[in-house]
Design a protein that fits this description.
DUF2065 domain-containing protein; about 130 residues; transmembrane; globular; mainly alpha
Length: about 130
């Protein structure tokens, strides 16, 4: 299996599963948002995990094309940048209204979830 296919299935399923859990159980999303902002240790670990997964994918697969391969790259860069932001700038998240943070996260998850589901459909049709 080539790297692009593996990463497509990996990021597609991870995104669809996590999005599904967080939409079926909104209380889990609220708990996670609270933990990332209020518990600095958890926020740092979350940030490092995002950096690790994002950077690994960017190094292996930095393909900017308007198809499912470009979506993998976009998800990887978003993970990398999110990890850097969470570690380097925790203060803005604390200043933002909690409900606004939850709503913005739900919007981004909905968009990424739909795009990832589309990507999985394309990959399974190959």
């Amino acid at each position: 299996m080539e790297v692009s296919l593996f990463l497509g299935f990996f990021w597609g399923w991870v995104t669809v599963i996590i999005t599904g859990i967080l939409f079926v159980r909104p209380s889990v999303l609220r708990e996670l948002k609270k933990l990332v902002v209020e518990d600095r240790g958890f926020g740092i670990m979350y940030g490092f995990l995002s950096i690790f997964l994002g950077l690994g994918t960017v190094i292996l697969h930095n393909v900017w094309t308007p198809n499912w391969q470009g979506l993998i790259t976009l998800i990887a860069w978003l993970a990398l940048l999110k990890g850097i932001y969470v570690i380097a700038y925790p203060e803005p998240s604390k200043k933002t209204n909690f409900e606004v943070r939850v709503l913005s996260t739900r919007i981004v998850l909905a968009i990424l979830g739909v795009l990832s589901f589309w990507m999985l459909i394309l990959l399974y049709m190959k």
